[in-house]
């Protein structure tokens, strides 16, 4: 049984195609069951986010399985196959495994190392389980992938380096004041950047958020989104005397906060420390404000400097993540090939025993007057011939099992000897364990 991954993402398809190809949560259960019933598909998971739509499947026939998934995409979304073909990619066997490992680790995202995808993959797998659309290969595939995603983040800290302006602004505030709960925060402006910043503030634990904007109505709307309070622009000096952090992102063409004004405010604050973060272009806060004692000022260039550094850190972490994926790929490869190799070896041994028993009984039927000792010698010789004959193929097959071609060698052996290979049965399950000396590893249970 072979893993495959068919789909499109932000690199292969524009947003207007991704929109058409997405699955609404209310459609997911029906879509999973329909796809599970397609020809050659034994288990399936659908991953649908704003940046990607992918089907991961376990198939008994790679070519037929891929064709079934593409036909499903075309019919379900009402898109002609020749158009859809321009945007779809197909990963088969271990390329499919590596692809999912990279996806869940955030290495295939628009922003390297982003954390949201880990939860999205987990949810997609849970939905497939609820629809009874998975099988053993899919279960091990996704359980392993989720463990890989967690290990990458734990071992590399790839998601600990913010790479967006709004998120970095909040991180700077946290570095300056520690926990944001209970800190007075004023957001000046109610545009897109302010909205993103407000969301990050709430996620970071901020509880006292004020919003000021030239349009009071817009300030009210944003304040509701972050459970904050809107304040009128005319009253903003009063609040500047009270808050600890100001994040400014207005659309003003001129400086909103000037040195003289801020010096007066700091006197009324009795020089209590204040952090100003200016993420507007053009700037809202005059650069000389940063020279006033007890005021720390960051502008957007300062933030971009931090972001550039964080991008470098994420790239370094991504290199480490790829090495982790290589390690995990080898473990999964060994497990997956064992699904083919072990039943094949058992079938080969069983065939050898059947031939041995048949030929021994035939020979003994032509021989008369043999003593029990002589009969035992004949049986022992026949057994030894079979064991010696099969020993080298079995040893070599076990070695080939640890390569990417292991499943092909088993198929060749099955065809050459016309083996009757039993179903997988209960094969070892690949589970994540923790070793204090070596970190994460897997063992069969």
TrEMBL record:
NADP(+) binds at residues 189-194. It catalyses: (S)-4-amino-5-oxopentanoate + tRNA(Glu) + NADP(+) = L-glutamyl-tRNA(Glu) + NADPH + H(+). It comes from the Bacteria. Pathway: Porphyrin-containing compound metabolism; protoporphyrin-IX biosynthesis; 5-aminolevulinate from L-glutamyl-tRNA(Glu): step 1/2. Residues 171-306 form the Quinate/shikimate 5-dehydrogenase/glutamyl-tRNA reductase domain. Substrate binds at residues 49-52, 109, 114-116, 120. The record marks 99 as: Important for activity. The keyword Lyase does not apply. Keywords: NADP, Oxidoreductase, Porphyrin biosynthesis. Residues 6-156 form the Glutamyl-tRNA reductase N-terminal domain. During catalysis, the active site Cys acts as a nucleophile attacking the alpha-carbonyl group of tRNA-bound glutamate with the formation of a thioester intermediate between enzyme and glutamate, and the concomitant release of tRNA(Glu). The thioester intermediate is finally reduced by direct hydride transfer from NADPH, to form the product GSA. Possesses an unusual extended V-shaped dimeric structure with each monomer consisting of three distinct domains arranged along a curved 'spinal' alpha-helix. The N-terminal catalytic domain specifically recognizes the glutamate moiety of the substrate. The second domain is the NADPH-binding domain, and the third C-terminal domain is responsible for dimerization. Catalyzes the NADPH-dependent reduction of glutamyl-tRNA(Glu) to glutamate 1-semialdehyde (GSA). This is Glutamyl-tRNA reductase.
């Amino acid at each position: 049984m072979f893993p495959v991954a068919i789909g499109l993402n932000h690199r292969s398809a524009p947003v207007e195609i991704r929109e058409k190809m997405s699955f609404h949560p209310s459609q997911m259960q029906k879509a999973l069951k329909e796809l599970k019933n397609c020809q050659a598909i034994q288990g399936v998971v659908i991953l649908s986010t704003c940046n990607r739509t992918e089907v991961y499947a376990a198939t008994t026939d790679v070519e037929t399985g891929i064709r079934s998934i593409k036909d499903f995409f075309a019919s379900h979304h009402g898109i002609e196959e020749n158009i859809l073909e321009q945007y779809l990619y197909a990963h088969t066997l271990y390329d499919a495994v590596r692809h999912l490992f990279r996806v869940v680790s955030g290495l295939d995202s628009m922003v390297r190392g982003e954390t949201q995808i880990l939860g999205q993959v987990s949810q997609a797998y849970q939905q497939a389980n609820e629809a009874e659309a998975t099988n053993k290969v899919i279960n091990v595939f996704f359980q392993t992938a989720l463990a890989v995603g967690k290990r990458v983040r734990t071992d590399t800290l790839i998601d600990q380096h913010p790479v967006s302006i709004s998120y970095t602004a909040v991180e700077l505030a946290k570095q300056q004041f520690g926990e944001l709960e209970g800190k007075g925060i004023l957001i000046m402006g109610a545009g897109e950047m302010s909205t993103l910043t407000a969301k990050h503030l709430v996620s970071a634990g901020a509880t006292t958020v004020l919003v000021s904007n030239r349009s009071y109505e817009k300030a009210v709307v944003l304040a509701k989104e972050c459970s904050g309070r809107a304040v009128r622009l005319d009253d903003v000096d009063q609040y500047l005397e009270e808050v600890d952090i100001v994040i400014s992102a207005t659309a003003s063409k001129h400086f909103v906060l000037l040195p003289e004004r801020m010096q007066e405010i700091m006197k009324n604050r009795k020089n209590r420390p204040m952090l100003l973060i200016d993420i507007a272009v053009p700037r809202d806060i005059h650069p000389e404000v940063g020279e006033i004692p007890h005021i720390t000022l960051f502008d957007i260039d300062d933030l971009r400097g931090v972001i550039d550094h964080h991008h470098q850190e994420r790239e370094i972490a991504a290199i480490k993540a790829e090495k982790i994926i290589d390690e995990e790929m080898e473990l999964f490869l060994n497990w997956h090939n064992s699904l083919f190799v072990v039943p094949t070896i058992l079938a080969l041994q069983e065939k050898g025993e059947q031939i041995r028993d048949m030929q021994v009984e035939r020979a003994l039927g032509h021989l008369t007057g043999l003593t029990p000792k002589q009969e035992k010698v004949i049986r022992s010789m026949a057994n030894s011939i079979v064991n010696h004959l099969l020993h080298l193929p079995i040893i070599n097959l076990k070695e080939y099992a640890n390569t990417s071609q292991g499943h092909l060698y088993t198929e060749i052996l099955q065809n050459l000897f016309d083996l009757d290979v039993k179903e997988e049965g209960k094969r070892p399950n690949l589970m994540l364990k923790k070793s204090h000396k070596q970190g994460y590893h897997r063992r069969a249970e």
